[in-house]
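Late entry, written up from scratch paper. The run itself happened at the end of the previous shift, but nothing got recorded in the book at the time, so transcribing now.
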Amino acid sequence: MRLLVLGGTSFVGRAIVEDALRTGADVTLFGRGRTNPGLFPHLPRLIGDRDTGDYSALRHGSWDAVVDVSGYVPRHVGQAMDALGDRVGRYLFISSHAVYVRTGVAPGSDENTPRRPPVRDTEELTEATYGPLKVACEDEVFARYGTRATLVRPGKVAGPHDSMDTFTYWVRRAARGGRVALPGDPAQPVQVLDSRDLARLVVRLLTDDRSGIFHAVGPAEPTTLGGLIETCARAAGTEIDIVPVPPEGAPDMFPLVRADWPSQQRSAARARAAGLPATPLAVTAADVLAWDRARGEPPLGLGFTPEEEQAALAGQAAGRVRTFGCGDPASG
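Output as recorded:
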């Protein structure tokens, strides 16, 4: 399979390229050449810039499929498709669960959940515009390629090389052990997908030349936010006490804490049937911990600082919610 990846050197794109190479695919990268320029040194790189509309490097060549990892606004997608035309067989677009409406959604929602209205009059990516811009991108892909279009809508993705810090925060915090402040409900459902599982799904869909829309969520077994933190502790061999603390005073968009629980309970049935694997959450946590330590544990941009966490814990009772660690029978 001759595969063109728009992006391909940062986190999700990197995982997709690695899995495609595992299957023997002939991969070409398109991007600015600024992110991890030393990665995949033997692969052909076509240099361009989606922000400025420079797609001149795509004037020649043909591919069986393209994976669009770096399309965030409809202009990105439209210009890429203009440049490629019919020289690609299938166009697979990496979208997001942010496309869905946020009210009236029940647990177990599938790919037919209503989407938010598309936005086309701005290219400013904010919490309010990100999802509607992705909706517009999806519409562009289907309008142009029809049955040759495939959409993958990931939820929260985690794994080595993740720059978003969301899952990494809990992996690192659980590894420190002790009383862990949680400005949320430990019973909140949470869905985290290993980036390598997402990559495997993408490559499988392309190999099978499958059209349609697919949720990419995990893990395979339902879990809660408290359970996720406990799993991270088991992976690190530490003991923790999860202590719920008031959300007032906690940083905004606290890692994985969500008020809309059904949005963390979407169905992955269609993706599982199409080949989405199920890496255990403990494996993802252990691999992220090893990666984070190997890179020197740089400062994170999300969650409590140690000082903020101590202040949040100061007024809370010492009673435990649940405790896990290397000596707990549940850690096996």
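Residues 319-332 have pLDDT under 50 and may be disordered.
(Scratch paper discarded after transcription.)
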